[in-house]
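Customer escalation, tier 2.

The customer says the design service returned an amino acid string that "doesn't look like it belongs to this structure." They asked us to rerun it and document both sides in this ticket. The original structure tokens are below, unchanged.
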């Protein structure tokens, strides 16, 4: 994560290559960042784009003690996709469905070409989310339709449960959880209904 107030210190591998006066391709071949003692990335483990704290890198290159990063969480910390998912206790795939919410799209910011969100906004979004039962329900008078703004999130959760699920299976899921008609016809009504109900003639 990018700690509060340190966004301006963030450097990419391309920045580090330029600092060494070599091309990015040459830098990636030499891999000085893999040497013992080189500061760890501030990006999430396994992130495609590595981001580093410039003060830590400079101290290391000058042979000085590498300063420690703050260990206290702050609402102004910037979290990447994986870190946001961890903050909410969901998978990165599920987060991809959440991030289209207006609150999150309003506060997304790019650092080093990577999307980040303030920790405080992620927590605010979590607090504003409806409960699981409410979330999977349907607003009044919407029939069998799933609210449009819930589709990305609910579909993402199905993919988390079964990454190989097909589009047909997703459709079948929505149909199986659809709200039944309030007034079924006599042909599909329970046998306990009054016998006086007369089916409509064709």
């Amino acid at each position: 994560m990018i700690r509060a107030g340190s966004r301006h210190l963030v450097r990419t591998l391309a920045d580090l290559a330029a600092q060494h006066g070599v091309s990015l391709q040459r830098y990636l071949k030499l891999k000085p960042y893999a040497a013992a003692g080189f500061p760890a990335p501030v990006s999430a483990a396994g992130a495609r784009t590595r981001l580093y704290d410039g003060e830590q890198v400079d101290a290391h290159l000058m042979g000085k003690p590498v300063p420690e990063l703050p260990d206290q969480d702050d609402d102004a910390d910037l979290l990447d996709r994986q870190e946001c998912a961890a903050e909410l206790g969901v998978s990165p795939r599920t987060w991809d469905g959440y991030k289209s919410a207006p609150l999150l799209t309003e506060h997304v910011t790019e650092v080093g070409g990577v999307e980040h969100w303030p920790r405080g906004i992620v927590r605010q979004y979590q607090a504003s989310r409806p409960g699981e039962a409410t979330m999977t329900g349907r607003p009044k008078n919407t029939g069998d339709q799933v609210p449009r703004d819930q589709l990305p999130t609910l579909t993402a959760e199905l993919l988390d449960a079964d990454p190989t699920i097909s589009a047909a299976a997703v459709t079948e899921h929505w149909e199986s959880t659809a709200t039944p008609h309030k007034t079924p016809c006599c042909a599909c009504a329970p046998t306990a209904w009054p016998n006086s109900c007369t089916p409509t003639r064709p």
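Tier 2 assessment: The sequence is consistent with the input. The chain has ten helices and five strands. The two ends are 67 Å apart (CA to CA). Sent an explanation to the customer and offered a walkthrough call.
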